[in-house]
Amino acid sequence: MTFLEQLRRLFGNDSDAQPNAPMEAEPATKNDVPAQAEFYAAPSTPNVNTTNAVVLIGYVDEAGTALSDPEWLNGQLGEPLHLEFRQFDDYLLADIQGFTTTFDAPYHIMTLHFIKKLGHPAILYPIDYDTGRLVAVPKLLSGPLNVPFLFKTPKIEGYRMIKASRPLTGHFTDQPQVLIALLRQSNWQSVQRVNYYLELNQSTPIYYTPAGKRHPYEFPSHSVWRLL
Known about the structure:
single chain, mainly beta, Ubiquitin-like (UB roll), four-stranded mixed sheet, 36% strand
């Protein structure tokens, strides 16, 4: 029994079966794609790197002292960083070491260096206590905010300091500070106000200052003057 007869006997009970007729094979063309190839074809998926990555952000001052606890950022390699740096009162950001905008390594360190803001200067004016004149060039100090300062007692030949308008120490602030040092000539002595009157028995010369330039006029003889 031929293979064709076996097929006929197998499907002989099927009323819808059609007589089996010989079929001619169609010639294959270059554009034909086998059904099996279509079944197994699938789009290629890109390789996604899911390696964990960490960025450590440190905040330090000019001396390398930490201004706060470090900040940890976690992500995947290649992902962008969402940066929002911390701010500190009285400090300015001066430099960033290891700056990056992506998770470019499994472990990365970024260090932010801050410097202190400068405060306004403090100025010391040395003033003659008796004449109100400036007796030397003013001294100026400047430095970072909240850092202490100290003016030395003015050393001016022929003068000694009597008092100052405020202590010669302080801290730099966001406002200028003015200090006045009051000095008196070394050969002058302090006097006390009295209510006495003096009658001159002869004409007396008048000077601008002790041992200074003489006035063109004099106190007349027998004139009475109140002592101050």
